[in-house]
Here is the input.
Amino acid sequence: MRTEAAQRVELVFSLFDADGNGVIESNDFDLMTGRVLEAAVASDDGAKAAIRAAFRRYWTTLATELDADGDGVITVEEFRPFVLDPQRFGPMIAEFAEALAALGEPDMDGLIERPLFTSLMTAIGFEKANIHALFDAFGPDAEDRITVATWAAGIEDYYAPDMAGIPGDELVSARV
Here is the structure.
């Protein structure tokens, strides 16, 4: 696994541990889903249902694949070696990427404006300076928008263990 991917794993674990108790559990996904839905007030019910289902599948997949001792929680030790395995997690990541990106375009024009992107990414737990750096790395148009496809692909790249120098690396860079 590339160093950049390892850094992304550590950040994802800390974000998924939404209640900050040191492990990932079902409640963490409920908390994150609630925060994301609060940020997506303009999205339609179908988009909201899709992100709820994607978060639920995310948790179910993690619990099934990574909870080695069956205690209902995932430790960082259980999480690290496996979460970036495209064979095990690729379809789930693709579903999540599509659902989150769609949530960012309530007007269904195929474009995501920076303010909503920032709100959704903040709801997940990323730092604002890193969110803006990521958005800039996606190459927004003159009206400060990116395409849904760009964001969805960026999410999938973020979880790829062999990827480096990708826009998603902006999320793990220290910023002031």
The mean pLDDT is 90. The helical segments are 3-16, 26-39, 45-66, 76-79, 86-103, 114-124, 128-137, 148-158. The longest strand covers residues 111-113. The longest helix spans residues 45-66.
